[in-house]
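Hi Y.,

Following your request, here is the sequence exactly as I used it, all 475 residues.
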Amino acid sequence: MENNKTEGQLLYEKLGYKNTNAWEKTSDKEIELAFSFCEGYKKFLDMAKTEREFVNHAVKLAASHGFTDLDKFTKTGQKLKPGMKVFQVDRNKAVIFAVIGNKAMKEGTRVTGAHIDSPRIDFKQKPVYEDTDMVLMKTHYYGGIKKYQWVTIPLALHGVVIKEDRTLVEVNIGEDDNDPIFTITDLLPHLATEQMQKKATEVVAGEALNLLFGSIPYKDEKVKDKVKLNILKLLNDKYGINEEDFTTAELEIVPAFKARDVGLDKSMVGAYGQDDRSCAYAGLKAIMDTEKTDYTYICVLTDKEEIGSMGNTGAQSRFMENFIATLCAYTDDNYTELKFRSCLANSKMLSADVNAGVDPNYEGVQDKKNASFMGNGIVLQKYTGSRGKSGGSDANPEFIAEVRKIFNENKVIWQVGELGKVDLGGGGTIAQYVANLGMDVLDCGVSVLSMHAPFEVTSKIDIYHMYKAYKAFAK
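Below is the corresponding structure, written out as tokens. Let me know if you'd prefer a different format.
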């Protein structure tokens, strides 16, 4: 009872700060909304296991919400007006959406930014080979993975092949229940004495991540690699491709299992690619559900974050910068470079990326007083980087206070966190590259268990509060 609390207890409640369990502080009605929201989230995860697939499905969703390709305006010279919704795709691997606000662009924008690539295994450009009457595919892993986690699990093949005549062929094998799946084999324990003496980073070598692809030979005694020929024939029959076409292909190996509820209470989501598609989906849904806004609201979804945001579809490219410049030019009859630079300097962004939640099986790697916890709401991470904050972003407290006020006023449950103990952990996001443009940026996402594994775990209540957070920020 409130009346039975001591003066000290009441004072501590007033002055102290501690994490809040979001399940306990969220109404039953909103918990129902959270479960419903995550049903759509799980379906999207199953459809969008690669960055190309995410862009494709995001654009389809945008079209149903009244978004128009920005190129249609630039080609006709038509001006953008408040309330208009536009998008632009970059090489089918990155995409930006915007709802034009009432304020002039030079006053700044509000941005949520996430990445849509995830750790995986890619085909090499000359992948096909036969050995001991089996065909395998040579691979090269992408991003930070524990290689041993990718053996002896069901795997699917997604991607595109560009033929010599520039025809694009989409490949998706292993997701339909009637499809075959693939796997990477491992040694049986009986013969693994030497293997088990190795460090975890060496238990499975990168060059040993060869995908088992087939074993039936083509019936022709004069052919040397009979099984390889049969596999090439099957691929040609289905997709019209030959072995040389692999040199102009982008084929990705991803887990074949679907997103599932985790826990007897179904409180969590288990799936591949939740880093960072959990944040990307919440950001996408937030802008889809935004009709009017004072500041122009932008959602940027980029590629290549897992390997440093390099390349022309990564956050270090000019994609977002060029997009914002175009919005400035097409909303202002008197566009100038100075107005564009003012827009960047006055813009504010939530870098939507995940954080490593405290795992009770591995508590020793975290400073629990400053770590994030699953089920405690969205995580505000002031700084990233490694050890002495090297290679990261560090948000200004003035901007964090602004975000804190927005979240509190909109009943968003939030917490603070960092990525592991000092000198033990660390990592970066796209925040540092956006901050280089002069924007205020704060990392803001959900806690994840088993990050970068083929099967990651998040809390449904955190996912929902993340969606609420991004919507509130847009206003």
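The chain has twelve helices and 22 strands.

Thanks again,
Q.
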